[in-house]
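User: Hey, my collaborator sent me this sequence without any context and asked if I could get a structure. I don't really work with proteins. Can you help?
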Amino acid sequence: MEWSLILIGIALFMIFEGMMPFAAPRAWRRAVAQLASMPDSGIRTVGGIIMFLGVVLLVTVTGAR
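Assistant: No problem. I've predicted the 3D structure and written it out in structure-token form, which is a compact way to encode the shape of the chain:
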């Protein structure tokens, strides 16, 4: 795997993560406060679902089987 692909992935992640605080800082702050008040199991569940959907999207886009 080329380093450039890893760096592209990191760059896209940073762009995506910065969109909400830039576009809607109040809504982002509320979302972070809600996340902070969730129990660990809820945060873990949300994280697992997001990771699963990311893997499904990656496999779909790249055609990997």
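In plain terms: The chain has one domain: 3-62. You can pass these tokens on to your collaborator as they are.
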